[in-house]
Amino acid sequence: MTASKSLTDPSGDVDRPPPAAFSSYNRHTWKEIAHLLANLPCALVGFVYVVVMVTTGVALSVTVVGVPWLVLGLGGARLLGWSERARARGLLGVRIDEPSRLYVPGRRSGAGAKAAPGPRSGGGLGRLLAGLKDPVAWRTVLYEFIRLPWGVVTFSVTFVGLFVLWPVLPFIVRTLANADRAMVRGLLAPSDELERRIAELESDRGVVVDTAAADLRRIERDLHDGAQARLVALAMGLGLAKEKLLDDPDAAAVMVDEAHGEVKLALQELRDLARGIHPAVLTDRGLDAALSAIASRCTVPVTVTADLAERPAEAIEGIAYFTVSELLQNVSKHSAARSASVDVWRAEDRLMIQVRDDGHGGASLDGGTGMAGLAERLDAVDGLFVLDSPAGGPTVVTAELPWRRRGESQRG
């Protein structure tokens, strides 16, 4: 984010007077004089605070209270930055927004704040690490270090100028005040959007890695406990049937018939497993057909409406498919609903999904139904997950995904 601009002054200094008034002692000049004279006491307070905070934090770093103390001190530095921005707004007319709140991994900010934190929110440790890496606080610390010598200069020049440089003092004051404006914009303006986005992406990368590892473990478990076990039993059954083929053909025929049933079950389990990895219908026919196939297996009647003139990126299709699949499983298992609906549409460069049921409601992101995991998965690809489930129902889940991930080519 950048400082907002005035229509009359492109520099963003709304209270700044026109050049013709520079040589006069108007209200703008007196505000700037007041700001420059206040620089020294404010700089002394800030400098002493950050020196004590940093040195104490370093000294205590060998103990368990060192990092929490430093994080607490950085939180105080944020407050110092807030007070300096307020002083600059009031006396220098620098119109800048406040920085965004501290980003904690697993908790979305801004538009994504509707998605509650998932299991990777990290608790106290996550907050400590986020506070320790807070770019807003560290820029404020740098600002306060720089301000002490600058405060001495501006206070001395302005104070002396009031008695011996009266005719040219407005020009001197304006020059010093412009330097202050530049310093505030450079170090205290909310230029942390990119830094916060990088922190979000680092956290999202961890979510993706954890999700992929969990999926691999699930596939391995399903293969081991399902199809693999059936194939082992099948091999043993066929071996016994081979031994009885000559001595007891009837018993061998029964065993071969049982083995045939085991083959069918193993094939069905392999098909289900392959569908869980990436369903063929999604690749061949797209979201509309794939979601209709999911709905047909739901124990609750489901209406599917897909208004998509073209297909999104393949990865986005897969995420949308598995999101709806898990939501409909929740409808079957937990909602006691009589009907449900799935709506999918495109809104500019976003893929929108809404799943609604008329069940008893009361679902939550921490209720053990996998909702938190869905929220994290969508968060990892810059998506949103919004749950509205009052007691008594209905339950409405709205998911939003980017239509096409950056760097992916358009599908034909």
Description:
The protein is an alpha+beta fold and 412 residues long. It has three domains: 173 residues, no CATH class; 67 residues, Single alpha-helices involved in coiled-coils or other helix-helix interfaces, CATH 1.20.5; 123 residues, Heat Shock Protein 90 (2-Layer Sandwich). The protein contains eleven helices and five strands, in the order αααααααααβαββαββ. The protein has a five-stranded mixed β-sheet. Helix 2 crosses helix 3. The radius of gyration is 32 Å and the shape is elongated. The N terminus and C terminus are likely disordered.
Question: What is the strand and helix layout of this fold?
Answer:
Elements: H1 27-59, H2 66-92, H3 123-132, H4 135-164, H5 169-188, H6 193-244, H7 249-277, H8 280-285, H9 287-297, E1 302-307, H10 314-335, E2 340-347, E3 350-357, H11 371-380, E4 384-388, E5 395-402
Tell me briefly what this model is:
With 412 residues, this protein is an alpha+beta fold. Helices cover 61% and strands 8% of the residues.
Cα shape: elongated
Instruction: Determine the number of helices (DSSP H or I, runs of at least 4 residues).
Output: 11
Strand order of the largest sheet: 1-2-3-5-4
User: How would you describe the oligomerization state of the chains in this entry?
Assistant: single chain
Number of strands: 5
State the end-to-end CA separation: 36 Å
Biggest β-sheet, characterized? 5 strands, mixed
Written as H for each helix and E for each strand, in order along the chain, the element string is: HHHHHHHHHEHEEHEE
**Helical/strand content category:** alpha+beta
